[in-house]
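Lecture 7 notes: from sequence to structure.

We start with a single chain of 108 residues. Read the sequence below before looking at the structure.
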Amino acid sequence: MKRLSVVLLLLGLAGCYYPSKLEARRACARWENQEKELSQVKYIKTETADWVHLPAVNENNTITARYCEDDNNTKKFVGYENYAIQNETWENKEDKKGEWKAIKNFRY
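Now the structure, written as tokens:
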């Protein structure tokens, strides 16, 4: 029983690797599509730096709660999430927009 626990712990620490970049991208996209979105939140691009990452803005200019970004240097897709959007507490005010946090890695 102890051996099984050690093996499972090591597998968890090693993380999951996908056989190809395409598989990792697909897995990240599946994770990204499970998110909520506030359909009333419209992103308007300004000339000043904005907190919103462009990948989090979909084709309808709706801000989504999750997005994936390819990190070629470490060979992984990083899944980011904004809890203010997930929890539907997002407001278009400086202290109410939440922040993007890396939540999940999809290594390839």
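Residues 17-107 form one domain. Keep this in mind for problem set 3.
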